[in-house]
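Re: the 276-residue chain
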Amino acid sequence: MAHHKRPYAGYQAKNFLWKASGDGKVATITLNRPERKNPLTFDSYAELRDLFRGLVYATDIKVVVIAGAGENFCSGGDVHEIIGPLTQMTMPELLDFTHMTGDLVKAMRACPQPIVAAVDGICAGAGAMVALASDMRIGTPAARTAFLFTRVGLAGADMGACALLPRMIGQGRASELLYTGRAMTAAEGLSWGFFNSLQASDAVVGAAQALARQLADGPTFAHGVTKKLLHQEWAMGVDEAIEAEAQAQAICMQTRDFRRAYEAFVARQKPVFEGD
């Protein structure tokens, strides 16, 4: 599959902003419709899905930050451009749409790059699911995260919410949020483990990028293995998980980064990882 590998730093986004760091290792996606609280459209859903699928083959991008422009993260599916049209669709068309939205979450979980969400203000519906599907989340005191599907007459089961949210914050808390659609406060999100930390609104993207830089400077091949096993081991017993980790760690022990770490330790230096 080597012929599919290519750089992504110069990716030209159509439905959101994309900016890579100078060395091409950290990319920031910014949902950019601040006047509407950055809602998703059919096109932005599809482009995000395809981008995260493509990042599997990226030769440069090691970590992705996702944020919203202005004072909000994402208000979910656009009421006029998505919700309205959905009421006129046939069942096969609706199933095509729900498969597409779920495929975005699958693509985020399947790409080897850790994803750090910078969450300020409104983080609702599909926006809450994008944050949930990320590997880590940095919030602000103003963050309000709502899985508000029941507020529009839908099930709380959307885009994997019933699988992902209970594993993160617990079954009872997830049940409350998914049944009521109420907003989880930033303080709740921090104490329940949804947010890794809270930062001021004017510092949250910078904090997410700093965390992303720390990860990008680490053993990124090994980070990809960690992400894969964090996902796969949900469906494993303990014995299966231990065996999977034994095999994964043996693979990582053959990387140059492992040898670099050893040689740096012997020389009493800080290792410089290169992701191979």
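Residues 25 and 61 are 4 Å apart (CA to CA).
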